[in-house]
Amino acid sequence: MAAAWATAVVLAVVSGGAAAPASATPEGDATQRYGQPPVWGSCQQIVADPGRIPTAQCGTVSVPVNYDQPDGAQAQLAVIRVPATGDRLGVLMVNPGGPGASAVDTVAGMGVALADTEIGRRFDLVGFDPRGVGHSTPQLRCRTDAEFDAYRREPMVDYSPAGVAHIEGLYRGLAQQCLNRMGADFLANVGTAAAARDMDVVRAALGENQLNYLGFSYGTELGAAYAERYPDRVRTMVLDGAVDPSLDPVDESVAQQAGFQRAFDTYAADCAKSAGCPLGTDPAQFVARYHQLVDPLVARPAFTSDPRGLSYQDALTGTGNALYSPRFWPYLTSGLLGLARGTDAGDLLTLADEYQRRDAAGHYQNRQDAFTAIRCVDAPYPTDPAVWVQADQRFRQAAPFLSYGQFTGFAPRDVCALWPVPATSAPRPATNPGPGKVVVVSTTGDPATPYEAGVALARQMGASLVTFQGKQHTVVFNGDACVDTAVVRFLVDGAVPPNGLQC
């Protein structure tokens, strides 16, 4: 089977397409009506340790929940601005991905990291949390902390007819919780199509004619949607860790799982260089050894100092989290050694908690609920069970380390196939907003947004492609001088890096 982690939890990529073309709706009315300047104030109540960015300003921008009903319910988008410290060129809007990750929190961190750089001197750094996400209100939250904990204890590996019915029952329960707590109208309007329109309202509220944009991971999908709808409002756009919006949900998931399998193989080969690697030293046995360690958790959680123990689902989530970057590999090795020795496997639980955004007090951020709700309206998911049986075969082939047991001829549908509101986007290629406006950065060993997706997105958008030889998810402003120099020159001077630049 394909694990629930791989199909329903990974934050880095979602299915969906770009927003409708600009001609579909009278955008001028929306931006004039809603693009009012924020009342800027302190970030004290929003950002952790605001003293590190004393110049930061925080506020909100109001948008209609449903643009077809402009006088109806409103959402308040949280916005942060870290003003340029030098010869200001404009704004650089950032989205960290997810969907569901907070751009406000990300920009707060970037404001510190980039304060003394040319980016910090030339641009106001701006982040807004899309509707339902992060510090925006209403906050999209489907589960209580206790309900989320209970969900994580479910292995969801029984693909007998009764087991499939049980898994789909869990998915239906999650969908119903979202519907009950958020309402159909809000759920139907949380997708990328609405977020792209919100992004333009924020642009207008900032008084900018054009945007500079840096999107990571899912943020590349939001950027591509914005560029299609508002091509004239893009000055420069950098898309790092690309999503290919032309892929349907199943194809996209297969490609992503293959990326995580490659990352697992790379990790295992590195682990095997050290004595006592819990996966052994024989590459032919890495996957089998991993299953020997984690599969018993289906029946019984492993020991950790946390009384929850380590569930099967958490073991896979923790593994996936570690595969995002080699700097997390030592924690994965430690957790697997705990399983092998029958001692504390707590590092895997810590990795899973970090991924799920559960703090030490047991409280969750809403990132995963937002992730699910957004991806479920970003593309129509097949509802025919037979499609998911075929998909299960493809998932097994793409990522053997994520598969449990043998193929049964039955498989649960994705939670999005059971979602209570329809999709608002559909897969299709991105469009070119104009020559010299977009640069795509893609990493050869990126597990979550495979390199090939970046190649495809660059081709679709007529963009220059920067290739980074690495093993991590996204790279811009993460310490690589080659990538960062090319990106800074593009953002500041509009100098497009040579297509095919290798870093």
UniProtKB/TrEMBL annotation:
Record carries keyword Hydrolase: yes
Keyword Repeat: no
Alphabetical keyword list: Hydrolase, Signal
InterPro entries per the UniProt record, alphabetical: AB_hydrolase_1 (IPR000073), AB_hydrolase_fold (IPR029058), Serine_prot/Carboxylest_S33 (IPR051601)
AB hydrolase-1 domain boundaries: 91-478
Gene3D superfamilies: alpha/beta hydrolase
Family membership noted in the UniProt record: Belongs to the peptidase S33 family.
Protein name listed in UniProt: Hydrolase
Protein's organism: Mycolicibacterium litorale
Organism lineage: Bacteria, Bacillati, Actinomycetota, Actinomycetes, Mycobacteriales
